[in-house]
Design brief:
Largest sheet: 6 strands, antiparallel, barrel
Number of helices: 3
Structural class: alpha+beta
Radius of gyration: 48 Å
Distance between the termini: 111 Å
Strand order of the largest sheet: 3-10-13-12-11-14
Protein backbone atom coordinates (compact mmCIF):
# COMPACT_ATOMS: atom_id res chain seq x y z
CA UNK A 1 0.00 0.00 0.00
CA UNK A 2 2.89 2.28 0.70
CA UNK A 3 4.55 1.60 -2.71
CA UNK A 4 1.36 2.17 -4.63
CA UNK A 5 0.73 5.48 -2.86
CA UNK A 6 4.22 6.72 -3.84
CA UNK A 7 4.05 5.78 -7.53
CA UNK A 8 0.63 7.41 -8.27
CA UNK A 9 1.83 11.02 -7.99
CA UNK A 10 4.85 10.28 -10.12
CA UNK A 11 2.66 8.92 -12.90
CA UNK A 12 0.33 11.93 -12.67
CA UNK A 13 3.25 14.39 -12.93
CA UNK A 14 4.74 12.58 -15.91
CA UNK A 15 1.39 12.71 -17.73
CA UNK A 16 1.05 16.40 -17.08
CA UNK A 17 4.52 17.09 -18.50
CA UNK A 18 3.72 15.11 -21.61
CA UNK A 19 0.54 17.08 -22.13
CA UNK A 20 2.40 20.34 -21.72
CA UNK A 21 5.03 19.27 -24.26
CA UNK A 22 2.34 18.25 -26.75
CA UNK A 23 0.53 21.52 -26.24
CA UNK A 24 3.73 23.49 -26.78
CA UNK A 25 4.49 21.51 -29.92
CA UNK A 26 0.97 22.19 -31.27
CA UNK A 27 1.21 25.92 -30.50
CA UNK A 28 4.65 26.06 -32.09
CA UNK A 29 3.37 24.33 -35.20
CA UNK A 30 0.39 26.66 -35.44
CA UNK A 31 2.55 29.78 -34.87
CA UNK A 32 5.16 28.58 -37.34
CA UNK A 33 2.48 27.90 -39.89
CA UNK A 34 0.96 31.33 -39.44
CA UNK A 35 4.40 32.95 -39.67
CA UNK A 36 5.24 30.95 -42.81
CA UNK A 37 1.88 31.83 -44.35
CA UNK A 38 2.29 35.54 -43.61
CA UNK A 39 5.85 35.52 -44.95
CA UNK A 40 4.66 33.78 -48.11
CA UNK A 41 1.76 36.23 -48.50
CA UNK A 42 4.03 39.25 -47.94
CA UNK A 43 6.51 37.92 -50.48
CA UNK A 44 3.81 37.41 -53.09
CA UNK A 45 2.34 40.82 -52.32
CA UNK A 46 5.75 42.46 -52.72
CA UNK A 47 6.30 40.59 -55.99
CA UNK A 48 2.89 41.75 -57.21
CA UNK A 49 3.42 45.39 -56.34
CA UNK A 50 6.92 45.25 -57.78
CA UNK A 51 5.45 44.02 -61.05
CA UNK A 52 2.74 46.72 -61.20
CA UNK A 53 4.45 49.67 -59.46
CA UNK A 54 5.94 51.04 -62.68
CA UNK A 55 3.67 50.05 -65.57
CA UNK A 56 4.14 51.69 -69.00
CA UNK A 57 2.34 55.04 -69.22
CA UNK A 58 0.56 56.07 -72.41
CA UNK A 59 1.88 59.38 -73.82
CA UNK A 60 1.97 61.28 -77.10
CA UNK A 61 5.31 62.38 -78.52
CA UNK A 62 6.76 64.74 -81.13
CA UNK A 63 10.24 65.34 -82.53
CA UNK A 64 12.14 68.53 -81.79
CA UNK A 65 12.63 70.39 -85.09
CA UNK A 66 14.15 73.61 -86.31
CA UNK A 67 11.80 76.17 -87.80
CA UNK A 68 12.25 79.62 -89.28
CA UNK A 69 11.28 82.10 -86.60
CA UNK A 70 10.61 85.74 -87.28
CA UNK A 71 11.26 87.68 -84.11
CA UNK A 72 8.51 90.24 -83.66
CA UNK A 73 6.97 92.71 -81.27
CA UNK A 74 3.28 92.26 -80.58
CA UNK A 75 0.60 94.70 -79.46
CA UNK A 76 -3.12 95.33 -79.73
CA UNK A 77 -3.95 98.17 -82.09
CA UNK A 78 -6.99 100.20 -83.05
CA UNK A 79 -7.92 101.06 -86.63
CA UNK A 80 -8.72 104.60 -87.66
CA UNK A 81 -9.36 106.31 -90.99
CA UNK A 82 -6.72 108.49 -92.61
CA UNK A 83 -9.50 111.09 -92.79
CA UNK A 84 -12.82 110.63 -91.05
CA UNK A 85 -15.54 112.93 -89.81
CA UNK A 86 -19.23 113.18 -88.98
CA UNK A 87 -20.67 115.84 -91.29
CA UNK A 88 -23.14 118.36 -89.83
CA UNK A 89 -24.73 121.72 -90.68
CA UNK A 90 -23.31 124.85 -89.04
CA UNK A 91 -26.73 126.47 -88.80
CA UNK A 92 -30.32 125.45 -88.21
CA UNK A 93 -33.01 125.05 -90.84
CA UNK A 94 -35.23 122.72 -92.85
CA UNK A 95 -33.54 120.06 -95.01
CA UNK A 96 -34.28 121.08 -98.60
CA UNK A 97 -32.33 118.52 -100.66
CA UNK A 98 -30.18 115.41 -100.31
CA UNK A 99 -27.70 114.49 -103.02
CA UNK A 100 -26.33 111.15 -101.80
CA UNK A 101 -27.30 107.59 -100.94
CA UNK A 102 -26.06 105.74 -97.87
CA UNK A 103 -22.88 103.86 -98.67
CA UNK A 104 -21.83 106.01 -101.66
CA UNK A 105 -18.23 106.78 -102.54
CA UNK A 106 -18.00 110.52 -103.17
CA UNK A 107 -15.25 112.81 -104.49
CA UNK A 108 -13.93 115.81 -102.60
CA UNK A 109 -16.19 118.85 -102.91
CA UNK A 110 -19.37 116.94 -103.79
CA UNK A 111 -22.58 118.61 -102.55
CA UNK A 112 -24.32 116.24 -100.13
CA UNK A 113 -27.20 118.20 -98.57
CA UNK A 114 -28.67 121.70 -98.44
CA UNK A 115 -31.08 123.57 -96.19
CA UNK A 116 -34.07 125.56 -97.44
CA UNK A 117 -32.97 129.03 -98.70
CA UNK A 118 -33.71 132.04 -96.49
CA UNK A 119 -33.34 135.81 -96.85
CA UNK A 120 -29.58 135.48 -97.19
CA UNK A 121 -29.95 134.30 -100.77
CA UNK A 122 -31.98 137.35 -101.81
CA UNK A 123 -29.60 139.67 -100.01
CA UNK A 124 -26.68 138.11 -101.86
CA UNK A 125 -28.34 138.84 -105.19
CA UNK A 126 -28.91 142.45 -104.12
CA UNK A 127 -25.28 142.88 -103.11
CA UNK A 128 -24.08 141.42 -106.39
CA UNK A 129 -26.25 143.93 -108.29
CA UNK A 130 -24.79 146.77 -106.22
CA UNK A 131 -21.26 145.55 -106.79
CA UNK A 132 -21.93 145.38 -110.54
CA UNK A 133 -23.18 148.98 -110.49
CA UNK A 134 -20.15 150.06 -108.45
CA UNK A 135 -17.88 148.54 -111.05
CA UNK A 136 -19.67 150.42 -113.87
CA UNK A 137 -19.51 153.65 -111.88
CA UNK A 138 -15.79 153.19 -111.25
CA UNK A 139 -15.13 152.62 -114.92
CA UNK A 140 -17.11 155.72 -115.95
CA UNK A 141 -15.40 157.94 -113.36
CA UNK A 142 -11.96 156.72 -114.43
CA UNK A 143 -12.69 157.89 -117.99
CA UNK A 144 -13.88 161.25 -116.68
CA UNK A 145 -10.78 161.51 -114.49
CA UNK A 146 -8.62 161.17 -117.58
CA UNK A 147 -10.56 164.11 -119.07
CA UNK A 148 -10.03 165.93 -115.74
CA UNK A 149 -13.81 166.07 -115.22
CA UNK A 150 -13.71 164.49 -111.74
CA UNK A 151 -11.28 164.63 -108.85
CA UNK A 152 -9.08 161.78 -107.54
CA UNK A 153 -11.23 161.65 -104.44
CA UNK A 154 -14.17 160.46 -106.54
CA UNK A 155 -12.10 157.57 -107.92
CA UNK A 156 -10.94 156.61 -104.43
CA UNK A 157 -14.52 156.63 -103.12
CA UNK A 158 -15.68 154.41 -106.03
CA UNK A 159 -12.91 151.88 -105.33
CA UNK A 160 -13.69 151.80 -101.59
CA UNK A 161 -17.39 151.30 -102.31
CA UNK A 162 -16.66 148.42 -104.68
CA UNK A 163 -14.26 146.78 -102.18
CA UNK A 164 -16.86 147.09 -99.42
CA UNK A 165 -19.55 145.47 -101.57
CA UNK A 166 -17.21 142.58 -102.46
CA UNK A 167 -16.57 141.99 -98.76
CA UNK A 168 -20.32 141.96 -98.04
CA UNK A 169 -20.85 139.49 -100.89
CA UNK A 170 -18.16 137.20 -99.45
CA UNK A 171 -19.74 137.45 -96.02
CA UNK A 172 -23.18 136.67 -97.38
CA UNK A 173 -21.83 133.78 -99.44
CA UNK A 174 -20.26 132.32 -96.30
CA UNK A 175 -23.67 132.40 -94.60
CA UNK A 176 -25.20 130.60 -97.57
CA UNK A 177 -22.37 128.03 -97.59
CA UNK A 178 -23.26 127.17 -93.98
CA UNK A 179 -26.56 125.87 -95.36
CA UNK A 180 -24.76 123.45 -97.72
CA UNK A 181 -22.73 120.37 -96.81
CA UNK A 182 -19.91 119.38 -99.17
CA UNK A 183 -17.55 116.41 -98.90
CA UNK A 184 -14.29 117.84 -97.46
CA UNK A 185 -12.35 114.89 -98.91
CA UNK A 186 -12.96 111.84 -101.06
CA UNK A 187 -14.27 108.93 -99.07
CA UNK A 188 -16.98 106.42 -98.26
CA UNK A 189 -20.30 107.62 -96.83
CA UNK A 190 -22.08 105.91 -93.99
CA UNK A 191 -25.79 105.69 -93.21
CA UNK A 192 -27.90 108.86 -93.65
CA UNK A 193 -29.12 110.23 -90.32
CA UNK A 194 -31.63 112.89 -91.53
CA UNK A 195 -34.63 113.09 -93.87
CA UNK A 196 -36.04 115.63 -96.30
CA UNK A 197 -38.14 118.29 -94.59
CA UNK A 198 -36.60 117.60 -91.20
CA UNK A 199 -35.66 120.53 -89.01
CA UNK A 200 -32.04 120.27 -87.91
CA UNK A 201 -30.13 122.29 -85.39
CA UNK A 202 -26.42 123.19 -85.61
CA UNK A 203 -24.19 120.13 -85.07
CA UNK A 204 -26.82 117.53 -85.98
CA UNK A 205 -24.97 114.67 -87.71
CA UNK A 206 -26.07 114.19 -91.32
CA UNK A 207 -23.77 111.33 -92.33
CA UNK A 208 -20.29 110.01 -91.57
CA UNK A 209 -17.55 110.22 -94.20
CA UNK A 210 -14.49 107.97 -93.92
CA UNK A 211 -11.43 107.67 -96.12
CA UNK A 212 -10.72 103.91 -95.96
CA UNK A 213 -7.83 103.24 -98.34
CA UNK A 214 -5.27 103.31 -96.88
CA UNK A 215 -6.29 102.93 -93.24
CA UNK A 216 -4.24 103.54 -90.12
CA UNK A 217 -3.63 101.26 -87.15
CA UNK A 218 -2.44 102.91 -83.93
CA UNK A 219 -0.75 100.83 -81.21
CA UNK A 220 1.57 101.20 -78.24
CA UNK A 221 4.84 99.46 -77.39
CA UNK A 222 7.09 99.82 -74.32
CA UNK A 223 9.98 102.23 -74.56
CA UNK A 224 12.44 99.32 -74.58
CA UNK A 225 11.25 98.50 -78.11
CA UNK A 226 12.13 101.91 -79.48
CA UNK A 227 15.56 100.85 -80.75
CA UNK A 228 13.95 98.07 -82.83
CA UNK A 229 11.50 100.42 -84.59
CA UNK A 230 11.94 102.52 -87.71
CA UNK A 231 9.85 104.21 -90.39
CA UNK A 232 8.70 101.88 -93.23
CA UNK A 233 9.21 98.82 -91.02
CA UNK A 234 6.86 95.97 -92.00
CA UNK A 235 3.87 95.11 -89.82
CA UNK A 236 1.20 92.41 -90.02
CA UNK A 237 -2.25 92.94 -88.54
CA UNK A 238 -4.66 90.08 -87.79
CA UNK A 239 -8.34 90.77 -87.21
CA UNK A 240 -10.69 88.27 -85.57
CA UNK A 241 -13.32 89.18 -88.18
CA UNK A 242 -11.05 87.59 -90.82
CA UNK A 243 -9.53 84.47 -89.21
CA UNK A 244 -6.44 83.08 -90.85
CA UNK A 245 -5.64 86.31 -92.72
CA UNK A 246 -2.94 88.88 -92.18
CA UNK A 247 -3.08 92.46 -93.50
CA UNK A 248 0.30 93.85 -94.47
CA UNK A 249 1.45 97.41 -93.89
CA UNK A 250 4.33 99.53 -92.72
CA UNK A 251 5.10 102.03 -89.98
CA UNK A 252 4.49 105.62 -91.09
CA UNK A 253 4.95 107.52 -87.83
CA UNK A 254 6.54 107.11 -84.40
CA UNK A 255 5.43 109.52 -81.70
CA UNK A 256 8.43 111.64 -80.60
CA UNK A 257 7.13 111.58 -77.01
CA UNK A 258 6.91 108.69 -74.54
CA UNK A 259 3.80 108.61 -72.38
CA UNK A 260 5.10 109.43 -68.86
CA UNK A 261 2.26 107.53 -67.14
CA UNK A 262 3.05 104.09 -68.59
CA UNK A 263 6.34 104.63 -70.48
CA UNK A 264 4.78 103.46 -73.75
CA UNK A 265 5.31 105.00 -77.15
CA UNK A 266 2.61 105.34 -79.81
CA UNK A 267 3.23 103.99 -83.29
CA UNK A 268 1.09 104.38 -86.40
CA UNK A 269 1.15 102.06 -89.40
CA UNK A 270 -0.69 102.30 -92.72
CA UNK A 271 -2.46 99.32 -94.28
CA UNK A 272 -3.76 98.93 -97.81
CA UNK A 273 -7.52 98.50 -97.80
CA UNK A 274 -8.78 98.52 -101.41
CA UNK A 275 -11.85 96.40 -100.67
CA UNK A 276 -12.78 98.42 -97.57
CA UNK A 277 -12.68 95.25 -95.45
CA UNK A 278 -11.09 97.10 -92.54
CA UNK A 279 -13.19 99.75 -90.81
CA UNK A 280 -12.32 102.47 -88.29
CA UNK A 281 -12.89 101.38 -84.72
CA UNK A 282 -11.88 97.76 -85.27
CA UNK A 283 -9.11 96.33 -83.13
CA UNK A 284 -6.47 93.82 -84.14
CA UNK A 285 -3.20 92.22 -83.13
CA UNK A 286 -0.18 93.98 -84.60
CA UNK A 287 3.07 92.07 -85.16
CA UNK A 288 6.14 94.17 -85.97
CA UNK A 289 9.03 92.28 -87.57
CA UNK A 290 12.00 93.29 -85.39
CA UNK A 291 14.83 91.28 -87.00
CA UNK A 292 15.70 88.95 -89.86
CA UNK A 293 14.21 85.39 -89.74
CA UNK A 294 16.30 82.84 -87.78
CA UNK A 295 16.09 79.08 -87.26
CA UNK A 296 15.19 77.96 -83.74
CA UNK A 297 14.27 74.67 -82.08
CA UNK A 298 10.55 74.68 -81.42
CA UNK A 299 8.21 72.43 -79.44
CA UNK A 300 4.48 72.53 -78.63
CA UNK A 301 3.76 74.56 -75.53
CA UNK A 302 2.00 71.53 -74.00
CA UNK A 303 5.38 69.77 -73.84
CA UNK A 304 6.71 72.26 -71.27
CA UNK A 305 6.22 71.62 -67.57
CA UNK A 306 6.44 75.01 -65.87
CA UNK A 307 7.68 75.10 -62.29
CA UNK A 308 9.26 77.68 -59.93
CA UNK A 309 12.57 75.78 -59.94
CA UNK A 310 12.74 75.66 -63.76
CA UNK A 311 11.00 74.61 -66.94
CA UNK A 312 11.37 70.96 -67.97
CA UNK A 313 10.46 68.50 -70.71
CA UNK A 314 10.51 64.70 -70.81
CA UNK A 315 12.83 63.24 -73.44
CA UNK A 316 12.31 59.72 -74.80
CA UNK A 317 15.26 57.33 -74.23
CA UNK A 318 15.93 53.71 -75.26
CA UNK A 319 17.42 52.75 -71.87
CA UNK A 320 16.77 53.68 -68.27
CA UNK A 321 19.42 54.77 -65.79
CA UNK A 322 20.09 51.08 -64.86
CA UNK A 323 20.71 50.08 -68.47
CA UNK A 324 17.42 48.26 -69.07
CA UNK A 325 16.25 48.43 -72.71
CA UNK A 326 12.84 49.78 -73.69
CA UNK A 327 11.09 53.10 -73.98
CA UNK A 328 11.70 55.35 -70.99
CA UNK A 329 11.68 59.08 -70.21
CA UNK A 330 14.29 61.40 -68.80
CA UNK A 331 13.42 64.81 -67.41
CA UNK A 332 15.49 67.64 -68.89
CA UNK A 333 15.66 71.31 -67.93
CA UNK A 334 15.22 73.76 -70.81
CA UNK A 335 15.56 77.48 -71.37
CA UNK A 336 12.63 78.84 -73.35
CA UNK A 337 12.41 81.95 -75.51
CA UNK A 338 9.48 83.60 -77.23
CA UNK A 339 6.14 81.98 -77.89
CA UNK A 340 4.31 81.93 -81.23
CA UNK A 341 0.78 80.61 -81.16
CA UNK A 342 0.96 77.06 -79.78
CA UNK A 343 4.74 76.87 -80.20
CA UNK A 344 7.57 77.87 -77.90
CA UNK A 345 11.18 78.62 -78.72
CA UNK A 346 13.86 76.41 -77.07
CA UNK A 347 17.16 78.20 -76.47
CA UNK A 348 18.97 75.36 -74.63
CA UNK A 349 18.39 71.91 -73.11
CA UNK A 350 17.33 70.03 -76.26
CA UNK A 351 18.91 68.96 -79.54
CA UNK A 352 17.54 68.76 -83.04
CA UNK A 353 15.96 65.31 -83.49
CA UNK A 354 15.16 64.66 -79.83
CA UNK A 355 11.74 63.09 -79.27
CA UNK A 356 9.79 64.58 -76.38
CA UNK A 357 6.52 63.91 -74.57
CA UNK A 358 3.75 66.33 -75.62
CA UNK A 359 0.96 65.08 -73.35
CA UNK A 360 0.64 62.82 -70.30
CA UNK A 361 3.54 64.33 -68.30
CA UNK A 362 1.68 64.47 -64.98
CA UNK A 363 2.14 60.71 -64.41
CA UNK A 364 5.82 60.61 -65.40
CA UNK A 365 9.13 60.73 -63.57
CA UNK A 366 12.66 59.73 -64.50
CA UNK A 367 12.95 56.15 -65.89
CA UNK A 368 9.17 55.71 -66.19
CA UNK A 369 8.46 53.19 -68.97
CA UNK A 370 6.10 54.55 -71.62
CA UNK A 371 3.71 53.39 -74.29
CA UNK A 372 3.59 55.79 -77.26
CA UNK A 373 0.20 56.67 -78.71
CA UNK A 374 0.38 59.48 -81.28
CA UNK A 375 -3.11 59.12 -82.71
CA UNK A 376 -4.14 62.37 -81.00
CA UNK A 377 -1.66 65.24 -80.86
CA UNK A 378 -1.96 68.59 -79.10
CA UNK A 379 -2.03 71.64 -81.38
CA UNK A 380 1.27 73.15 -82.48
CA UNK A 381 -0.12 75.82 -84.82
CA UNK A 382 2.04 78.98 -84.98
CA UNK A 383 -1.09 81.02 -85.78
CA UNK A 384 -4.04 79.36 -84.04
CA UNK A 385 -7.55 80.65 -84.54
CA UNK A 386 -10.13 80.31 -81.75
CA UNK A 387 -13.04 78.14 -82.81
CA UNK A 388 -16.58 78.50 -81.52
CA UNK A 389 -17.84 75.12 -80.39
Amino acid sequence: MTVNSYNAPRRNGRGLAVRMIVMLLVVSLIGGGLYAFRSFANKKKAEYFASVSNPPQSVSTAPVTKQSWQASLSAVGSLRAVNGTDLAFETSGIVDSLHFTSGDDVPAGAVLATLRPDETTGKLDSLKAQENLAEITLGRDQKQFQAQAVAQATIDADKANQTNLKAQIAQQQALIDERTIRAPFAGHLGIRQIDLGQYVSPGTTVVTLQSLDPIYVDFFLPQQALQALKIKQAVTVTIDAYPGRGFQGQIVAINPKVDPTNRNIQIRAALKNPKHELLPGMYGTVAVASSAPQDFLTVPQTAITYAPYGDTVFVITDKDSKGASGKFVKQSFVKIGQTRGDQVQILSGLSDGDVIVTSGQTKLRNDTPISINDTVQPSADPSPTPQDQ
